[in-house]
Amino acid sequence: MKTSNPIGKVFLTLVFILTYVPILSLVMFSFNEGRSLTRWTGFSLQWYVKLFESREIMTAVMITFLVAIISTIISTIIGTFAAISLTKTRKSLREISLSANNIPIVNPEIVTAIAFFVLFGAFAIERGMTTMILAHIAFSTPYVVITVYPKVRNLDPNLAHAAYDLGATPAQALFKVIIPQIKIGIIAGAAIAFTMSFDDFVISYFAVSGSAIKNISIYLYTLKRGVEPTINALSTLIILVIGTKIAYDYIKSGKKKVED
Questions:
Q1: What's the whole-model pTM score?
Q2: Fewest CB atoms less than 10 Å from the CB: which of 10, 28, 50, 141?
Q3: What is the CATH code of the structural domain delimited by 6-259?
């Protein structure tokens, strides 16, 4: 007989409250008429209008998405091919490579950021969009590798040989046999890389230090008057996009279960 655990229920309730109440508060005050983030003064859409009228915010949003998309595409390609090649190397070299791959993941972000700062300075690379993209590719690729590698390792090693026997070239075997089998891992790795890039502040700040390039996180950091209500509106739109995607995936998975 199962018994309810009141302490567990209370703890779970507190976790949900601490997690979702701030998000709900952010969404609610994005429609606030006044500038206060704690006192409701009336319903208004003015902050959404000002959001799209603000060139600085829109530029930061465009830079954020542009850097995230470019770094995700490149890091996904590099990480996928690296994961595939690791399964073909000797065990000792593979273990060393995987251990080295994990260093940027477990390393504190501030250490990685300073390393990029020193590297770009040593090679006299002008800080800006290019350095931000390079930094994001560098710290996103290891996440793709650790996501795709298990999928590649679980593949039947005879698949490629079977494709060769049927007349496929190495490129055809890779793109028509191997990659379709590991596409779930590739998509997961790309999603993690995009999220890491979109969310990053410390490495981005050091990578573009001294330049006029700002993504959303750097823009928020440089606000002199604290967080503005327009940021609540921007955050609400991001939450809406994410929520729509989650709902779409849930409905799609539900239909698939019914069909099965």
A1: 0.83
A2: 10
A3: 1.10.3720.10
